[in-house]
Structure formats: C-alpha cells, structure tokens
C-alpha cells in the first residue's frame, strides 16, 4: 500500500513547493474576510501535507508545513521577511526576569530548603548554579516532566529569587510595564488577527469530535475514502495486552506492534491501520472484541484522514505559537489576550476555557502540547496569570470532576496546573478572597465522597471498584488545599478573615463526616469473618494531616480568627457529641469519699472509633489559645464556660482505652485491621493529629476538672473501677485461681492506665501545653530516638514528623544533642547522643513503641553500668506547664492517685500470685518519682512568701485511712527496698528515698511548712552502711558466678567449634601453611636467589599435606596419589583490554595462539582457595546437579548459579565456581632430573639446535601426513634427514601422573577452553593447551596490574587465596601438556618459536608489534617440555627456559624501542652517559639503520634507557611471578619490601644481567640477524610510516571512567540523553557504563536487541561487547550501581555517591546533594580489577533471593 502512494506524494511535493509564503501573506493582507481566506488555504493544503499514508513522515511534513502553512503566517505577522521581523522583535523585547524553563522528564531540579517558600518552588540546573542557593541547604530531585523553573519569581523565594542570568539591576525594577509599548500598532493589529484565527482553528479542530466530517469551513470539495484506525491510550491495559491484540488485529509483526504500543503510550494515540473505511472498521472491531473482556475495551476510532491531518497541524500550530511568543513579551501578551477573550457564547467560551474544559477528552499528546503552551504564555505573563488563575478557579469544580472520571495520570491533566497557580502566595490569597477557593476545593472534594452512613459519616466499607478508583483520584484535591494553605498570610484583611472562616466551616463539615467513622465493636466468641476496610479512612486522615496542622497554623496567626475558629470547632464538636451519648445512662461513681456523675459506657461492649478529627482539632486550637495567651487576654470572648470537660475527654479517652484493651489482648478476635489502625494511630505519619492530640485533650480535661473525678472516670472507662474500689481485691483474687487470664488482662490494663497518667503529667513539650518552644520539642524527640541507638540521618528523619515543607527541624538542633560519626568504606554516618543529654531521658516517652521502649531502657541501663553509676532511670526534670494547664499537676497528689499508688505497692509488698506485675510497680515508682521531682522544683522556684501547695511528700508519709489501715506509701517503699524479688528496681526505690530526704531537707531549711515527722523516714546511717556492705558482698558473688558461667560458655563454644566448625578453622590454617612452607624454608640460603635456568637456586623437596573440606581427610600432594583440587572460576575478561571494540567474532575459527598486546580477549581464572578431593568434589557436584533438576521440575526457579553451565558454589564459602584446578608439585622437577651435563649450549647454539629439531619434526610431520607412502621409504627419509644429535622424535615419555590427576588436568583444561572461547567442550581440540597457557599468563598479568596500581611489592602482599590460585594455575598449565597430544603441543611450540626465529613453512605469523611478549614467554616455556622430552643430547629444561626468557626479553626490548621511545621529554640528563646508556643508544642506532631510518632519531641514551626500563618493568614482574610459581624458588626478600623499584633484584632473580643490553652484545651475531628480520616485517614498516598504530609500553592500567564530583551533573547529562532508537525520546532509565562511559537506554522495549536468539535490554547487550558478559553500570535516575554478568545474573550495589550525612540515596528519594566518594568508587574499581564482579553478584543473590527473580537480561 505504501509503495502505491509513494509516487503521489512525490508528485504533490512540486505543486506544494511552488506555493510562496510571501505571496500568500500578501493576499491575506488584502483580504476583507481574513478568516475565510485563511481557512480556505488550510482546507486546501493541510490534507495535502499531512496524513498521506500509513506512517507519518515527520521531517517532510514539518518542512512542507513550514513552507506552505506557517510561512505565510509569519510573513503576515511581521509584514516582512520573518527572519528580519523576528530578530527586530527580539531586539526591542525587554525579556521578563522569569526563567520559566519547562522541565523535561528526568531533568534535575533544585529546591532551596532555606529560601524556597514551599517545596514546589524549584530551579533548573543552570539557574541553580548561578544562584545563591547553591551554598544553602538544597534538595535535588529529578523532574517527572511538566512544571517549570521558578527563577525570577519573587514570590517563590524568601531570598535570592534571581540567578545571575535572570538578575535585574534593582534600580530598574519597573512596575508592571505593558509589554505592548515595544510593538508597533501594525504588528499588534496583525498579530492579533492571525493569532485569533489560528488559535481558534487549533482549538476548534482539536476539540472536534466527529470522526468523518470536518467543520464546515474546512470541508473539502473532493473527499477520498482514506481512513485511519486510531488507537488511543488508556491506563487500564498493559503493554503486553496491547501488543498482543495489535498483532492479532492488524496482522503486524511483534516489532511493529511494540512500536505502535510505544507511540500510543507516549503520544496518547497512534493510527494502526490506514485504508478505506471498511478496512479500518474491521481492525477496530477486532481490537474492541479482544480487549472488552477486561474492564473496558481499548478506545479505537475510525477517523477520516483529513481530520487527522488537521489535528496534526493543529498541534503543530500550538507549538508554533509557543515558539513565536518567545521572540517578544508583547506577542505573548497578545496571545494571552486572544486566549482569554470571551467568545460569543458568554461564560466559558474563551479559547482557554474551551481547551481546559475538553481536557479529559483529548489524547495525551494534544494535552501536553497545549499545557506547555499555557505554561509558556499564560503562566509567564504576570497580568494574565492572574486572569487565568481566576478562570481556573471558576472552572475548578468541572475540571476536577473531569479529572476524577478520566483515567490518565494527573500529570497529563490540566488539573495538575493547580500547583503552578495555587502555590503563588498572592494568587492563592486572591483566589481565597475573591473566588472563595478554599470552600470550593473542600466542597468539590466532599461532593465526590457521597457514600455516607446513617449519621452522615463517610463510609468506605462497601465501596465498589469504581468508587475506590474515584476516591484515589479525588485525593489530589487535598493536595490543592495544601497548596493554597502552604504560605501563611502576614496580614489579614477582613475579607480574608471572612473567607478563611468560611473555608474553615467547610473544613469542619468535612471533619464532621470523619468524626466517629469506621467504628469498631469488640468481637467476642467468634473471630470476625471479614477484615473490615480501614485503609481508606486512614488514607484520608493521613492526607489531611498536614492540612489540619496548617489550618491551626493559620488560626494561630490572627487572634480574631483563632477565637472564631475555636467557637466554631466547639460548636461542631457539641453537635457530634450530642449524637454519641444518646441513650447512655448516667451512673454515679465513688471512691475515697469522692463521687462523680458519668455515663455508663464500656469500650469493650459498645462501638468505638479511632477517628476523632473534630475533637483533635479543638485540642489543637485549645493549645493555641494557651500559647497565644488569648485565653488570658480575652477570656470573655472565648466560650470557656461552655466547655464541658467530661464531654471533651470522653471520646479521646475511649480511643486510648481501646488501644490499652487491644494491647491487653481483649480484641484478638477483631483481626489485623484493628491492629493496623492502632499502629497508624501512633505512627509518626499520623500521630501529630491523632494520638498526640488525644493526650492534649485529656490534659485539657484534667486541668479543668477535679483530678479525683477525672481519675474515677478514667478508672471506669478502663473498666478497673471495681478493682480499686474493692479494698481487699488483691487478697481475694489470689485466693481464687480460676481467673488467671482475667487477672493478667487487668494487670495489663492497670499498667496501661498508669502509663497514660505518666504521659498526661509528663508530656508538656508542645508549646502551649508546657512553657517550651518548638526547638525544645524537636530536641526532646531526637534525644529519645538516639537513646535507643545511634542512628543515620535518614533513619532519624524517618522517625520524626515532617511538616508540609518536609522539614523536621532536626538540623537546627542536632548539633546540640548529638555527635556525628563519619562512615567508613561501607555503612553510613551515624549520630550518637551526647552523654550530657542522657539525663533528659524519659523511659516513658510517649512516642516510643513498646519495642523501642525496651531497647532504650536496656541501652540506657547499660550506659549507666559502663559509667559505674546506679541503674535507676528516674524521671527527668520537666519544664513547667503553661498557666492554662497548670492545675493538671494536682493529679499526682489527688486522693484517688494516692490510692492507686498505695494499692499497687500494697500488692507488691504482699507479693502473692499474679495480682501485681513488675511493670505496674515500675510505673508507680516512676509516678512517685515524677511527683517528687515536681515538688522539688516547686520548692526550688518558690517565691518568698508563697506557700507550695504541692505537698506530695507529706501525703505519702501518712498511713492509709480506714478501713484498710495500710502503712504509708513511704513505709512500704522502705520495706520493698530490701525485697529480694525486686533486685532490678532497687536503685529506683533508693533514688526515691534519697530524693524524698532531699526535699525534706529543703522544706526544713526553708521551714515554710514543717513536714510531719513520720516513723518511716528515719534512715539511720548505720543501716545504710550495713546495706552497702551487703550489696557489695552480693555483687561480688554475682561477679564470680558470672565469670564461672562465662568460662563454661566459652568451653562449650570451643567444643562446638571442634565438633562442627572444624571445617572452617582447618582451611584457615591450611591457607597459611601452604604459603608458609615454601617461603620460609630454612633450606634455601639467603644468597641471591635465581628463579630459573641452569643456575636456578635448588629447592629442597617439600612434602605438602592438605585437608579436603568435604571429607576432612588429610592427604599428601603427590604425583601418584589421588587428585586434590581447588574450586575455581574461569571467566572471559576485558579488564586489561586496550581495545573494547574488538571481540571474538567466530569462536569456532578463532586462533588464540598469539595474544595481541591490546589484551582484548583474555581468560581469567580465580579461586577461593578451598581444597577438596577430586572425587569428593565430583560427588558434591553430582548432588548439586540432581538437586537442581528436582527443583526445576517442582518450581521454575532460578538459582544464583547455572548448573547446566557447570557452575556451583564452593561448599565452604559459597563462592561462585565453575571448575576445579588440580593441586600439583612443581612439575619441572619431575622432568628435569634426567640428565645433567655441565656443558650447556649458549643462546646461539641453542637456537640453532632447536631450529634443527623443529625442521626435523616438520619433515616427519609432512611424511606422516603424506598418504600412500611405504613405511620403508618413510624410514629412509628420516635417515636422510640427519636427525640432530640425541634427538629421538619417536620417543614418547610416560605420563607420571595418577589417573585421577590426569582426569582433572583434562577437566580444567576443557573448562578453560569452553569458557574462554565460549564453545562446546572438546578436550581433543588443539586450542585447549593454548587456552590454558593463556589463562595462566592473563591471570598473572591482571594480578601484577593490581599490585602495581596499589604500589605493593610483588610477593609479600598477595593474599593466600591469590597465592594458592596462581601457584596451582601455573603448575597446572605447566603440566597440561602431559595430557595433550605431543605433536599438537610441539606444533604450537614451533609456531611460537618461529614468530621470533623465522624458519620456513610458517606462513602468517604476526609481527613482533602484534605479540604480547609475556603470553609468548609463557607459551614457549610451557610448550617446551614437549620438545625437550625427546632431546637426549643433554640440554636441560632449565637451559631452555633461560634462553627462551632471554630471547623474548630481547624481543620485548626491541618492541619497546620501536613503539615507546618516540618522545624525548624536557627532562635533562643528570650525569654523563654511563655504559648502559651508551649501549642502548648503540642498539637504537642499529634499529634506526635496519628500519631504513624510518625510526625517529634519538640522541639521549639516558632517555632511552629510562623508557626501556619503564616499559619492560611489568614484563619482568610478571615473569618473576611466573617462574616463582613454576619452579618454587622463594622470592628474594628484597623484592618483598615495598618502595623501591627493585629493578636490579628482579634482574638477579630472573638471571638477567643487570645491564641487560649486554644480552644483545653477548649474542651479537644471532641477534643481528633476528633484529633485522623483525624490522623488515611489512607491518613494522607500516607502523613506522604512520599507517597503523601499535601498543606502546608500559601499558597503562584501565580505570573506570571519571565520575563528576557533583551527582546532579550526571543527572543533567542523562536528562539530555535521548533513546538512540526512538528518535529523540527521552530515555526512562538512562544507564551509564562505568567501564567505557557509554550511556544506554536501559529497561525499555525500544532498545531491546537480539542476542543469541533472545531479546535482551541495552545493558545486557552492551556487556557482551564492552565487558565480554560482565558489566558495571550506574543507573543514573536511581543512583544505583548495577552489576551484570551473563544474561541471568545481576545485583545492585551501593553507589559511590554520598550525601553530607555519609549516606547513599538509592532511588533518589531523599534528595540531599550527593558527592562522589572516591574511596567507594575505588572499591568498585578494585572489584572490577580483581574480576570479582560475578562473585559479588553471587554473594548478593545468595543473601537476597528476590534478586534471583529479576529479569536482568531486560535491563
Ligand atoms: Zn531556570
Ligand atoms: Zn535564572
Ligand atoms: Zn537558599
Ligand atoms: Zn574428600
Ligand atoms: Zn571456597
Ligand atoms: Zn561499556
Ligand atoms: Zn530506547
């Protein structure tokens, strides 16, 4: 279809291109009816440009639209060439000082915590960096898109509203200048005309709802039968559903379907089929049919192509308008005028109104285009912003209702603009007073919650799904209310007062509907059948919490408002209360001669509700009345006399009793919903306007009534009245044994009640209740949090209530109460309580949860013990109450209170049965302590003539009255202090008695009122001393007993370890022993040690014993015994790669014999160093495999390891492994013992001999491969060949290893081959030995790099596991040839040898620039035995090693001289040239000569020598490691020391002359030939002529990319990154490769690619090219490091960015500024260098199984 249409499009282009913008504009200028003229133009051209086929051609459409449609408008507007016209406009424009930058998705935004008026005020990065706020406490977030920069808005910032760029000279501030004065009359008129027409056109067409008919003035003459089947977005169907449906409906591929779905999701609609009506209709019906099974079908329309065309142009037009007004504020003002001008239909007929009101009908793309236009026009113009705000407010109800029924997220709704309008304080104030906005919002909200119960309260219980959905959406209105209230007025007008109070009325109506909602009734007998719905009510409460607080804040600002609000609130509460008490009968209670009237009500029997917002609001206002002193200033204005304290306390008290009963287990049958409600009631998110206010309300009540009456009501509500009015309750109960449960329950209730009394008296840290300020309050919160344990900043923030600005106020006080401890490499920074703050600790702090309370108690007691203090935790001294609450304190000395105290003490003294509990006693002691503290403070602060009316000490000294005649409280305390069962409380009782005496002294000395002397107070010193001695003795006994127990414990522990954990310890010892044996061998002299060659330092044979971690058997490592193996992990690696674009293309054909010096594809072997028997391991692995198979059958779960690929976890340390390495003795010793001639050939002779042997082998090989030759002839040829002396190619040595070792040699070799090349295992493949040598070389190189980068000496600092791994790996690689085909290994040797010593018959060998010399060395040395074993001429292996080493070293020197000596840096030579320097210079000159003078001339031998030494150092270090492990010669102690470069020592150890240029001179002849042949290679020439590159030496270690210091620059970088596949779209999960710095579009359909037949995300795909399967990424928007390995493994790792509190912010939730922590970044880099990423992932996945389930390959 597309191909048919193509030519038509082509043809049309020409006619369109001929259309001249200037001419058209000219015609328009002449027109009498401009509207008609323009419409005709559009009607004609728009369908010719847009929608010509199934797929849009955006570039062509844009080009044509600009030429034919927009061009004329620009000409018309300017009246001249728009390029000139617009630049003129721009010049005369006085730009506004608002930034107004609209944020892209993911763009960083900044808010200043010090200066922003509210948290919605944000800056773009550019403005932020140029503002004063960058040095303030700022918060950083990423934008979700939409919203704009508030720079320049003076209302948004308390300070520094302008950045440098938008700063204006303060002298120049002009009062609202009309921007039109800068435009000419003509331009104004024309702009007005064209804007009016175009804006109307766009609105008309976008809101057009007919599907096949155009508006009359756009109707075309001829109409083709071309339609689109248009699919619209909804939030109901998932991506997968849409993709699946589309594949069915329009027959497209999955890729296309994904494309459609992506566009639908992004733009809100996409045509999925183009053709005639029928054709489209058909697709539509399939889609509808297929999706109607879900809640509602996908929206599909069949639309005529011309309508779609006009709509597309309409969108284009709106963006165009947006960009045109950018030229001039005048144009912008005209557009605003046009937009807000009322149309012919009166109210709501302006274009802006029309767009807003059809918002919910528009598709996503259209919405976002016009929202953006509004933001850049209406919201940027100060005058019209106001007018627009009024329109918005007037339409508020409609817009919100539309939004509630719409299903798009709020960010795509016009309703979301409320944040831009309502948060501007002046606008908000204007809208409140003029449009009554507060009331409108609240009423609109209430309108949407119509479901009420009989009492008119909200009822969420029977919500349908739809209602629940609406409820979720309608909650955003609360946010609007919050925006309106967020900035508090500084001045009140009468209007504002009136409208605020009107809003307050509406708000009270709302709260009234919540008062008493979701009531619960205690379930007895049966468990409830269904958990009742409770979340909705709590959601509402939680969302309203800040609004309730803000309402109070507003009231606090104006006395008149406060008084009125107080009255209103009280009135509403009275209304509510009237309903509650209906039918409840009055009852009279009496105790201790007091009696009170109350109602008969039982929480455990009747309905009770947790939701009491009206009571709580009144409590809040009451505190404000106290705080602002309105109560004393205008008592006559307050309805204080109307307050009925019993009414006030009734409901809060019921709620608190409910909590107590739940705690006592009385509501068990009511299920979890109640438990949850009670949890939230106390939770930090709700408590401020719930629990806290209930406490305040009770405090209010007590302070206004007789405390005895209060306590009696309380006892009655707790259902404990009976107990305390029965004199002998204790005795009675203890005689009955049947009611244990009931007694227990009552005990808990008594404890809870005592706790409540403690809170009522002790909680006076709200300003207004006690004489404190806000700082005291927050300090106290922090002190108590830190009393539990030291906490990180974020933990502390979480435990403190946040205000509407998300501030806790913590920063202002934290320094005063805590020390900050910085974090280490892991973990977080911690705040620790300052010791001097411990005295303010209150064990019964009301915000402690029970768990916190006991933790805090424990911690504080421990602290006291550490400080060698007594462990009493007495109540702290408290600030005095405010006068309104002052009388509350009398509760402590009221008769009923004393009765309660006395009763509990009496029970304790009697100490029988279950009647009392320790916590009960503890609470009574605490209360007594509080009373004593109070009295003491009163006495200390009393004025001269005043009498202290608080006489608690007197009262507790008096014995109880009839009928029980109990002893006095004091006397009982004295009795109890010696009670053996109260050991823990002794210190507290002691403290009480001490304080009592102190008070007595004060009273006596001041003698204001003599305290009655009572029998109990005589505390003789002697008895005290006696007591002291007794305590000391007991303490001593206790100490001895403790010690004995400790000794027993540790004995048991030791035993346990012996029995069970033997495993672990032994391996530890083993690790140590292997290394120790070899390095500290006493047999080796301390003379210079030599690691190789004929002069190799002899190593005495060491016997090595190891223990299998699986069967615990010990065994000696021997050639002929069973194999012992190490768990090992082989992986491909690019860690050392110098060329990441290179990777193995076709593994089947890849030849790994020569490693390129760019080290691009290495194979690394690592091991945890744990040793097993080969057969034990085999058995273990088989069982893992079997288990895995069973598990996979049961549930398709992943594990952290892939058994099918041979992976397993080390049985001891759970380290990921995929093979095992056999443990071997130094293999050279086995073969080297054969013949020892003293006369060994020199290098020249040796090369000659080897060359001859190679030649002989080649002839033989050729013979063998030549078919049809007689045996005899064969032999003849051999004779002819003249075999070199002593060479016996028919000799095949016997393999000395046991079968089991041989098997393991093959196993490991095959594994290395399989993993390294990523091929199927094949032990016969000739590349197996090469891979083994390669892995050995590569692993040594990577470890050498790590040691070098950390400036560590070669040998001494290797951890045991690395040491063991390298030793086993090297020896394995050296022994592997014994299980490989001899001729294959010989063949490899020949080729390797030929790369340095050219012979014939070797075709394509790399030139020396393209060979990594260390790999070559390892290959040659390890392959050499295969040749040497047939040589009986007496040349020892050692001689061969030495010559190979010298030869390769010389080749490397030449390599370095060729590639790395091109620069003579400015440094001057220090002394005259030495011998060595002259030698290098001479060598260089020779090279210069051989290369035909292509080599740069150098004159400084000193520089050359420096370069050579630096370049060769890594090679020498690697070689030293290699020969050390190969031959087992201990390293010379000098090399083990850190610091110096050890060049000489290395040379000695490696048997190199110190002046290594000597090597060349000693072997002058042969080297001359060789060098010449190397230099004549064509590649060398090309290099010297600059035609190609070569690696230079030393190679620098790879590092992870440089990360910026400030995290926000990364966010910014990522926000500018768009998906590389979907044309300019912002990527949702931009992810940075830390290895190469590539940004990827992760976790998204758009960037999935196919890898080995599976769809994988961008990250996984990238790991294959960048890290051969392993990847280290930073997910920028989450601030999270991502490790990936293979397709199935991954984990998240803590990012290297920390905030000032030493914490990471994964997910960027807190928004504190983040800075790079270099140490942590280094740690990640180290993991990478050590090849530990995969291991790290394994450990993470083992620790956290949920990680296993993540589809890592889709990231
Ligand atoms: Zn800005
Ligand atoms: Zn700015
Ligand atoms: Zn600031
Ligand atoms: Zn074993
Ligand atoms: Zn292990
Ligand atoms: Zn990369
Ligand atoms: Zn993408």
Automatic annotation (TrEMBL):
Similarity comment: family membership: Belongs to the E3 ubiquitin-protein ligase UBR1-like family.
Single GO biological process annotation from the record: transposable element silencing
GO cellular component: chromatin; cytoplasm; nucleus; ubiquitin ligase complex
Location of the protein in the cell: Chromosome; Nucleus
Species in which this protein is naturally found: Delphinapterus leucas
Protein name, as recorded: E3 ubiquitin-protein ligase
Biased composition (Basic and acidic residues): 1021-1034
SUPFAM superfamilies, A to Z: ClpS-like, Winged helix' DNA-binding domain
Keywords: Acetylation, Chromosome, Coiled coil, Isopeptide bond, Metal-binding, Nucleus, Phosphoprotein, Transferase, Ubl conjugation, Ubl conjugation pathway, Zinc, Zinc-finger
Region (Disordered): 1005-1034
Boundaries of every UBR-type domain copy: 97-168
Family matches, as InterPro entries: ClpS_core (IPR003769), E3_ELL-like (IPR042065), E3_ligase_UBR-like_C (IPR044046), Ribosomal_bL12_C/ClpS-like (IPR014719), UBR-box_UBR2 (IPR047508), UBR1-like (IPR039164), UBR1-like_WH (IPR055194), WH_DNA-bd_sf (IPR036390)
